TrEMBL record:
<keyword id="KW-0732">Signal</keyword>
<feature type="signal peptide">
    <location>
        <begin position="1"/>
        <end position="19"/>
    </location>
</feature>
<dbReference type="InterPro" id="IPR011089">
    <property type="entry name" value="GmrSD_C"/>
</dbReference>
<feature type="domain" description="GmrSD restriction endonucleases C-terminal">
    <location>
        <begin position="104"/>
        <end position="200"/>
    </location>
</feature>
<protein>
    <recommendedName>
        <fullName>GmrSD restriction endonucleases C-terminal domain-containing protein</fullName>
    </recommendedName>
</protein>
<dbReference type="Pfam" id="PF07510">
    <property type="entry name" value="GmrSD_C"/>
</dbReference>
Length: 205
């Protein structure tokens, strides 16, 4: 093999190692599937009657083996995560897909609800039973729960994509696809502004 070709091969191998994929939740649809799901969502004005309360969505419930939902996501989305007998992480690292930051302390990580609980409330969940809201708030089957930088999650708060987007534009496709997948499965409505923002983000796929 020529020297230049050997160097190129080595550089390619190094790039492959450094570009290891960030662990992500299950159920993220392709951009084309997300566009089809988006087209089928009901568009209507969100109704905020002022009665939302986070406690109406019981979250971080027991998920088996002594681990709650938060701890389960930290184990799922971290690298080399070690937990103690109470399932609390004692070491590991987490790369936040929203901003690209890497953290080695679980206390620096929040578990973000892709579709915020209040957004769900004002787009249909106010009519659900508490049991259904609990399922939504602890949904490990769809791309609803993400391990992200704590202050980024706090900046997002209950904002929809027309008001807040991740700083990493390279993540916009995945973010919009995940948001749409969650709203589609749970039959939640979207606003016209939300649909416009999601469409723009899906066009980056």
């Amino acid at each position: 093999m020529k020297t230049s070709a050997l160097v190129a091969a080595l550089l390619s191998a190094c790039a492959t190692v450094s570009a290891a994929p960030v662990p992500t939740p299950p159920g993220i649809p392709s951009g084309s599937t997300a566009k089809s799901q988006l087209a089928a969502l009901t568009v209507k004005t969100a109704v905020d009657d002022g009665t939302y309360d986070r406690d109406l969505f019981p979250h971080w419930i027991e998920q088996g083996s002594g681990c709650n939902t938060r701890e389960t996501v930290l184990k799922r989305d971290g690298t080399n995560v070690v937990v103690n007998s109470s399932c609390a992480p004692t070491s590991g690292s987490w790369k936040s897909p929203y901003d690209g930051a890497t953290w080695t302390a679980a206390s620096d990580i929040d578990i973000d609800h892709m579709v915020p609980l209040k957004n769900a409330w004002i787009s249909g969940a106010s009519a659900w039973t508490t049991a259904k809201r609990q399922q939504f708030a602890n949904d490990l089957t769809r791309p609803q729960l993400w391990a992200v930088t704590d202050n980024v999650n706090q900046a997002k708060s209950d904002k929809s994509p027309d008001v807040w987007k991740p700083s990493l534009t390279s993540f916009h496709c995945t973010y919009a696809s995940s948001w749409v997948a969650v709203k589609s499965y749970w039959a939640l409505s979207i606003t016209s502004a939300e649909k416009s923002a999601l469409t723009t983000m899906l066009n980056t796929c």
